[in-house]
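User: What would this chain look like folded?
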Amino acid sequence: MITTCLWFQGDLEAALDRYASLFDDFEVHSVTRMGAGEPAMLADWRMNGTEFRAISQPSDFRFNESISLSVVCEDQAEADKLWYGLIADGGEESMCGWLKDAFGVSWQIVPKRLYELLSDPNPARAAAAQTTMLGQHRIVVADLEAAADKAA
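Assistant: Here's the prediction, encoded as structure tokens.
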């Protein structure tokens, strides 16, 4: 088994609380505190069917966009819930469904309809959906569909 391991800067408890509020399939398996003063914290949890492990201790290590957590959402409502929940309290929007949450973790929030439109057998529809997506921050399915329909 491969488990994604993340290094937080002392804010792991807040991250776990945020993620638990956003994902229905969320379960903390263990939390361990080590040391005195500002103790390190270790946690293992499942989120949306994926196992994670994390350490929380101030360090020079920082998250960056070279790795992200990608979530394929069933519909626009799920994508919007995650998008707005993850950028709340200091997160940052980026382009094409990418964002950085308040803890520095990069995410891709993608409605599955985007993949359907990008693989449309009509190349003009697929290209129009792609062009529209490239101009979006939060992916808006209705805008992608409108662009694809107009190009057909």
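The chain has five helices and eight strands. If you want, I can go into more detail on any region.
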